[in-house]
Amino acid sequence: MARDTIFALSSGRPPAAVAVIRVSGPAAFDCSTLVAGGLPEQRTAALREIREAEGGKLLDRAIILRFDSPATATGENIVEFQCHGGRAIVDIVLSALGSLPAFRPAEPGEFTRRAFENGRIDLTEAEGLADLIEAETEAQRRAALVLAEGGLRRQIALWQQRLMDLSAAAERAIDYDEDDEALDPALSSGCAALAAELGEWLARPRVEPLRDGVRIVVAGPPNSGKSSLVNAIAGEDRAIVTSLPGTTRDQIDVPLSIGGMAVVLTDTAGLRQTTDVVEAIGVARARALVDAAEILLWLGDPDGAPDHPNLILIHARADVRGPAPSGAIPVSAKTGDGIAQLLEQMTALASPLLGDGGAIALNRRQARHIAEAQCALADAGLASDILLVAENLRSARMAFDLLTGRAGVEDVLDSLFGRFCLGK
Amino acid sequence: MGAMHDVLVIGAGHAGCEAAASAARRGARVGLLTFRPEDVGQMSCNPSIGGVGKGHLVRELDVFDGLMARAADSSAIHRRMLNRSKGPAVWGPRVQADRKLYRRAVAGLLRQSGVEVIAAEALALVVREGRIVGLETSDGALACRAVVVATGTFLDARMFIGEEVAQGGRSGEQGSVALASQVREIGLGRGRLKTGTPPRLDGRTIDWSVLEGQPSDTDHWTMSALDCGVEQPQLACALTRTTARTHDIIGANLHRSPLFAGAIEGRGPRYCPSIEDKVKRFSDRDSHQIFLEPEGLDDALVYPNGISTSLPASVQNDFVHSIPGLERSVIVRPGYAVEYEYVESRRLKGTLEANDLPGLFFAGQISGTTGYEEAAAQGLVAGLNAAASALDLDEVRFDRRTSYIGVMIDDLTLQGVTEPYRMMTARAEFRLSLRADNATSRLGEHALRSNCVGARRRRHIEQRLLDRLAPDWAESEEGRADALYAPYVERQAREWAIVRSDSEARIPATLDFATVPGLSNEMVERLDAARPETLDQASRIAGVTPAAVSALFIVTSRRAAA
């Protein structure tokens, strides 16, 4: 059962100056029939004419790159076409490839999936790759690159080695102890030390705020100027503004980049008791959003502000209302006064949530498994029966297996590869 | 051909005797072939039965009415429950048995089972239409429906004492050359392993007064769940240690050991090394423990456990005399190393039947294991299933989640062996529920269904299963141990459920691994050798990478969907 050869446009949507079309699979080199003068030597580039068939119609002149398996991105033979990026050119080259036997368009994420299946990358690297492709800010790019280059994989390998050593010591004490000795305190302290180290990692910022943007929620009573503020920060009219209380009935998400950091600014329905069914749903949703917010901008009375660790009090419509109460930033959406100061404070609060991007940030899936391992190791450090020390160590090893994708294959693969767009 | 047997067993060691008796318990007419009938049930190495992990195997074997636990009880001259300071799941019952009494007990149990002992040499398997139909022996041809090969180290064995080399596994036993080459022709030959023994000492020349004695346990416990009522007088064992001088003598003569001179190519067990191995590899240790085990009530022989060696006899003499208490001891028989060929256990099914030759079963050391207990437990599995093959009964399989026997069979048939395989509790991921004290609870119903137990055993199992339902079960020792580990066992079950949701996916028997996209040649080779039946098994094969498991998963799930 020979595997299909897949192809797709791997660069952005045309039109563009250049379009990169990637072909991967056992028969990838068969596309040479479209290339006048044949493919170049492996790992070299050549300018070639692309023709419909040998001696047929000229489609484009393109740079052709050839990579021989197995040392390629997917582990398979790869040919890359760097064509002119016009829509018609891309379409005609893709359909010419599609006419070749055993060639078919790639599914979303299929190139990365093949790289994983062929052992070219492991799960954490694949996750990093997915993040890298989606990275929109500099911090996202740096964090994703650390993952994609195997930064977490190497760290995990170190932890697993220590875990193995601890397990080996426990097993030796169980199976090879002629003297039936007491539990070695060095084993307990070794478990506790590793648990503490994992705990430090867990205390670091997660990758999600970095990847998906820090969630900044604008909340307050109806008609307090939330939507005007969102529009003022976004610099365009994203929310409908009227003088009628209760105009915003559902959340409005505005993705933005502030000081190089991705944030999602969310406008919410005003918080009040209402008999309007639709508005009531919006209010309930707004309360949930306030709870989930990473930073909360509150436009109401400071005394009525929800309890939140990253709270910014705003005195809206500062141009028409009196002086701001103490601790609140006076802001006018109309004149733009105070917006700069607000952005500064948002940046200051968002920054620690993101880390510096150069260190390895864990995503929620990774953090869950590392937390399981940490919990088991902490128990191992406290257990007085060597058997329960060993059992907790086994459980910690299992958590690492799930983390690296050795167990629970289906889960991880599906959730991961579903994130890729076509051609990556 | 001669009289018809259902099952013929070649070799009357621990594996062969259990195989013959268990096939007979299922109603098969069984012949047991041995060169020397007087050696039936011989303990060829040390006189101890059980231990950590090994004791678990003996207790499990006992639930199926195996011979070993009962023979050990009736010949025990020293009992010790190992690991008593640790949790009950890893307590290891171990006895020292009187060599002669043990042999006599096994012979007696075999006689009761109706097994016919045949003094003959097996020459060749008779195969017709791809199935075993008989055996050529030195006494003529014998017809049968299934054969269990339990010949220990018979395949091209060589013995080493220093520079001296002799053919044969144990002295006086010639190897069956024809049978050996036939096994290789079937493609079951695997490689060479080595094992060793220490010099045997004359106990009357040991100065026991300077040694730390180790008395037998004072509380009465038995290996078998059925108390045989026989209680032999209990002897004390003793402990001593190697000294710096011992290590100097061994170090100065390392070049004379066939291990290091390159004469032995086979791999020995890492966990039970010869004394010269220990001195060389653990040079930071200045002393190693030696356990002095008496071989019998009316036998002065002592087995010094911990100094197996293949150094020349004169060197053995020198280093033994450097050990406290052994300064004037006399070596009755020098230690030696045996190197032997073993079969590829990955070509066997979970029933221990050869994949490619129906009716042919293997059990014991020939499959790459070491130890009496490991051999006997395989004998049980091969015997029960040889009877199944001959009489068209249900197969009896063991699961690694419910027994150490299952762990061993799964490891052997899936992972194969590169060094002599010894049972350890570390091999059992479900160790907390696989205790030596709950073997009957775990396997009782399985044993009853297998139809291989006598009336007394049946009553005992049924009673135990009833007891478990009684309200005061929680107060029993076993009930308390259950409760102690219950939270952990539940967590394991949850973890397992996560893995199982993918891993139960079956891999079609017809799947050609070479056609699976993304598998390297190395992975294809490993998978081909082990032929895993499920994704779970594939994930446990040594050296098979997560990426390979993913690739297999994708293929199997695509097939399931198609």
Number of strands of chain A: 13
What best-fitting shape of chain A do the alpha-carbon axes yield? Answer: flat
> Oligomeric form of this entry?
heterodimer
The class by helix and strand makeup of chain B works out as alpha+beta
For the largest sheet of chain A, list the strands in their spatial order: 3-4-5-6-2-1-7
**Class computed from helices, strands and strand pairing of chain A:** alpha/beta
What would you say this structure looks like, in words?
The complex is a heterodimer of chains A (424) and B (562). Helix content of chain A is 42%, strand content 17%. With 424 residues, chain A is of the alpha/beta class. The longest helix of chain A is centred in the middle third of the chain and has 25 residues, at 151-175. Chain A has a 7-stranded mixed sheet. In chain A, strands 9-10-8-11-12-13 form a 6-stranded mixed sheet, sandwiched between helices. The model of chain A is unreliable at 407-416 and 418-424 (pLDDT under 50). In chain B, 54% of the residues are buried. The radius of gyration of chain B is 24 Å and the shape is globular. In chain B, a hairpin with a 2-residue loop joins β7 (122-128) and β8 (131-137). Chain B is an alpha+beta fold. Chain B is built from 17 helices and 21 strands. In chain B, α1 packs parallel to α10 (372-391), α2 (54-63) crosses α12 and α3 crosses α4. Chain B has helices at residues 14-25, 54-63, 68-75, 99-113, 177-185, 244-252, 258-261, 275-281, 313-320, 372-391, 404-415, 439-450, 455-467, 477-503, 521-530, 535-540, 546-561, and strands at residues 7-10, 30-34, 48-50, 76-82, 92-97, 116-119, 122-128, 131-137, 140-143, 146-149, 158-161, 164-167, 189-196, 200-202, 212-214, 237-241, 289-296, 299-305, 331-333, 337-343, 360-362. Chain B has a 6-stranded antiparallel sheet with strand order 15-16-17-18-14-19. Chain B has a 5-stranded parallel sheet with strand order 6-2-1-10-21, covered by helices on one side. Chain B has a 4-stranded antiparallel sheet with strand order 12-11-20-13.
